[in-house]
Design brief:
single chain, about 300 residues, mainly alpha, globular
């Protein structure tokens, strides 16, 4: 009952957020910003989204170490797509990670290793996001007045991410009560799988490089949203504002960040830069086409290989 109530509250936040946004900014005024120049940029964004899925598959395969080499690359890509399908429909934004890591792990009898690889890659992605954010932040602060709360919040999130990656790699050193390990046998297996990366420094840092490329694509995509509606912004500005948006929408207060994402985007780009809200939303809504592009591929995988 508690989970059901929380799910309904998240749905309520998303509905109210979207409803308020479109009440203040009519959809017709948003739609007018999609012109002939939008299509070439949208095709480019679809292309780099496709490339990012290949990079994610490569990172996952590499983090499975020798076991990953035994599995065809196309299989990793298929499960990446499957994850996006479930992420689009499961509340929280992490449901797809659970489905794809457990499904591939069970198929190849590598569940702890598969889950460990996805967990590590998630944290690495966040660390690369913070790297790009704090590289770009000094220039942004010199030119714009960004609320200190955003900077402090990003700093706190960075510390949590650093702690998380260290905890993952040394989790086997943490002795859990037998009452827990005897009841949940998966936990010691996951700890052992995570500990493997301490002795796999080369692959660990290669995975960091893949994560850097993926975050770079995320920000290039955000930059492309504005170019698609005829607005040119400094790339460093896009990095800072969209990094803040990503972290805020990860908070478990809505369904996959819907409603909250739009509010944060408008707060930053309209409130600080003065860009009309209809243009900001016109660019942001293009992102849902990319989500649909990923989810459709996952739906095809699910339909073809239901087992």
């Amino acid at each position: 009952m508690k989970k059901r109530i929380l799910a309904w509250l998240k749905l309520l936040v998303s509905v109210l957020g979207i409803g308020y946004i479109f009440y203040k900014v009519p959809f017709e005024s948003i739609r007018e910003n999609w012109t002939a120049q939008t299509l070439p940029w949208l095709l480019f964004l679809l292309f780099i989204t496709w490339i990012s899925m290949f990079i994610q598959a490569n990172r996952w395969r590499g983090l499975l170490l020798d076991e990953g080499k035994k599995i065809p690359f196309r299989t990793f890509y298929a499960y990446i797509a499957l994850g996006y399908f479930f992420t689009a429909f499961l509340p929280g934004g992490f449901g797809g990670d659970v489905v794809k890591s457990v499904a591939l792990g069970k198929r190849f009898n590598q569940t702890p290793r598969s889950v460990a690889a996805i967990l590590i890659s998630r944290v690495q992605g966040l660390l690369m996001l913070f790297l790009l954010f704090f590289i770009s932040l000094p220039w942004v602060l010199l030119h714009y007045s960004v609320p200190i709360s955003f900077t402090l919040g990003m700093g706190a999130a960075l510390l949590i991410s650093v702690f998380a990656i260290l905890f993952c790699c040394f989790s086997d050193k943490v002795k859990l009560p037998e009452s827990i390990t005897n009841r949940i046998h998966f936990i010691p297996k996951l700890q052992a799988a995570l500990a493997l990366y301490r002795n796999q420094k080369k692959q660990f840092f290669l995975s960091f490089f893949d994560s850097f490329l993926l975050q770079l694509i995320v920000f290039v995509t955000a930059y492309g949203y504005f170019k698609a509606i005829g607005i040119s912004l400094d790339f460093r500005l896009v990095v800072v504002f969209n990094a803040i948006t990503i972290i805020v929408t990860m908070l478990p207060i809505s369904l996959n960040g819907i409603g909250v994402r739009e509010w944060v985007i408008v707060t930053l780009y309209t409130g600080i830069l003065g860009i009309p809200a209809d243009k900001v939303l016109a660019g942001n809504l293009l992102g849902y086409i990319l989500i649909l592009f990923q989810a459709v591929q996952g739906g095809i995988v699910l339909a073809a290989k239901r087992r």
